[in-house]
Amino acid sequence: MHPRWAGNGRGDDNQDTMGADSRMQILRLGDRGAAVADVQTALRSLGLLPDVDGTAVPRPPHAMATLPDVALDSAVYDQATELAVRHFQQDRGLSVDGRVGEETYRALNEARWSLGDRLLRYDPERPVRGDDVITLQERVHELGYDAGPVDGVFGPGTESGLRAFQRDYGLTSDGTCGPATLRALRQLGRKVTGGRPQLLRQSASFVESGPHLIGRRIVVDPGHGGEDAGYTQGETTESDLVFDLASRIEGRLAAAGAGVYLTRGRDQNPSAAERTAFANDARADLFIALHLDSHGSEHARGVASYYYGTGSGASSTVGEQFANLARREVLARTGMLDLGSHPKTWGTLRMTRMPAVRLDCGYLSHPVDRLLLLDARVRSAVASAVLAAVQRLYLPAEADLQTGTFVLPERI
After folding, report:
1. Which CATH number fits domain 12-111: 3.40.50.10470, 3.40.50.10090, 2.40.50.100, 1.10.101.10?
2. Whole-angstrom Cα Rg for the chain
3. Which of 19, 100, 119, 182 is most buried when burial is the number of CB atoms within 10 A of its CB?
């Protein structure tokens, strides 16, 4: 989202990543209790919040609150805590709203871990997550092995890359990162230089797959749905508009030969986990999440796109490329305000195993954007823009087309 509006609207990172079935209480300014004390301990361990004695020296990453129960119950979510949370959210690619929902709390827990703090292994039932996993994934990639996406989740790709490294270096190839593996990782220098190898590998695979769309599997995810209408003004609801937009995109992509799947029907509202699981189970090549936005400011308007990326520099190269392509194509066809493309760690972008992009196609709370979005011709133009962006994503550089010029041929 544009810096002026980022995280100050509806708190969409909670809707986007927690899902409709989340039961976690959102912590905010003025709240008290043990949960607040736990958040403050995590912030202190990261050096973002002064300690009780006024210092800000980080504690061990896995340290938990050790104050008496009375002190825990009296912990207050004050302005200093809110400011620290905002700082953390900004750094981690989350919506910056100063509140702690499920996604922010999970990110705080993951940030506590450094490589070497614990044993790392693949658990299909409860995958290990944390900054130590990100460090491991980056290190394995630097040594020339494919450990899958650098997403902080110890999945089968990470295990496979780690096993290959262990096997080649005479270690026990068990896929577990223990003391012996850590020593080997620390002693060896980088073998791959001149860029981020996992991202170069991802880009190369797209180029090699060919320019056509026939047989591509593309999942389109219209946000909200069912009882969750999203932003509503009069009879206009976000869920209905994005479903109409998704249906138009589905038709155009299908006409170009792609296999297109929507994550929901008109009256359904799957959770974020269900949406990403649907895309993963479909073995999709691309995931496109559609939203509209709103804000209390009368000046908030425009189009923004998002792709997976962290504050440490890990990101999806193809996702970033497609986010830029889609945004620019929409702008060229609608004349809406450009709010840029931004890295985020939202669940729907992080947990999909294919390049994923979220496209926010305007602000329903702004009168100009709303009039445009209520026009069926504009929604058709947005659908054509997404088709053009998908086609351009697969075209080689020398055959790429100028933004706003791609038109679907009459016959495929």
Report:
1. 1.10.101.10
2. 22
3. 100
